[in-house]
Structures are given as structure tokens and as C-alpha cells.
Model the fold of this input.
Amino acid sequence: MAQCTECHSSYSEGALFCSNCGALTKASNPISYSSSVLLAVALLGLILFWKAASVTSSSSTTVATPVMDEAALLIAKCGKPDIDSAAKPGFDPARRMLIYRREKVKAVFSGSDQKWHREDIVDAKTQKSLAPEVLRRRLPCAEF
Ligand SMILES: [Zn+2]
Done:
């Protein structure tokens, strides 16, 4: 015997509707079964799609952005500086300076080759730190 989901009275297995209240039984309702299967398939497809999409996006970001230190990033964004201390012999190898003459901006980096870390951005003449709003005006590409 099966139990009616509506009135909880018993009805014989396989009956299409409840003999007590007339509610449709599970046996009479194969649509809900197939729709739940459809839902499961759709969910599975969604998960697979999401996994595939996340794999593609993560692999494409690694291709798009190779490992760049902050000096390389500045050059990539603002173009080649007028003076790059790394290209000149005799400079402290633990520091690197990039000077943009026209913009009067000097970027100071510390670290080592391929691992430059931006320490300060100063005025090329006065050597004083540039306020963010001044830098934004002179060298907007340096903002990152
Ligand atoms: Zn019933």
C-alpha cells in the first residue's frame, strides 16, 4: 500500500489517484519524475560548463599576463623611460630608477632583476615624493 501525500490515507500501489481525496498519486505523475531528471542533467551540464569555463579563463589569464615585476609593469603601461638605471653600468644593482623626462617623474624600485618593487615615485628634479594626485596628472599610466 502507498500513502497519499495529500490526505495521508492509503491507496493501492499503482493507483492513479487517491481513493479518499482524489489527489493524483506518484504513479499518475511521471512528468515530475522526468522533469527532475531533466533538472539533474541541466545541473550537471551547468557544473561541467562552469568547470570548463573556469579552466579556460584561468589558463587564458596566465597567458595574457606573464609574471611582471613592478618596473616591467610600469614600462609596459607608460612606455620606455628616458633613463633606465638598469641599462647603465655603475648603478646600485639593488635599486632601479626609471625616469620619464617629459613628465618629470622618477620611479624608484628596490629589489633585484625581475623582482623590482616600487619604492617611491618622485619629482625628477626635486627628488620629492609625488602626491598621488600629482602623479595622476603627470603620469596617469603609472597608477596601478
Ligand atoms: Zn488522498
About this structure: The chain has a mean pLDDT of 85. The first helix runs from residue 30 to 64. The pocket of zinc ion is lined by residues 4, 6-7, 9, 18, 20-21, 23 (CB under 6 Å). The chain has three helices and six strands.
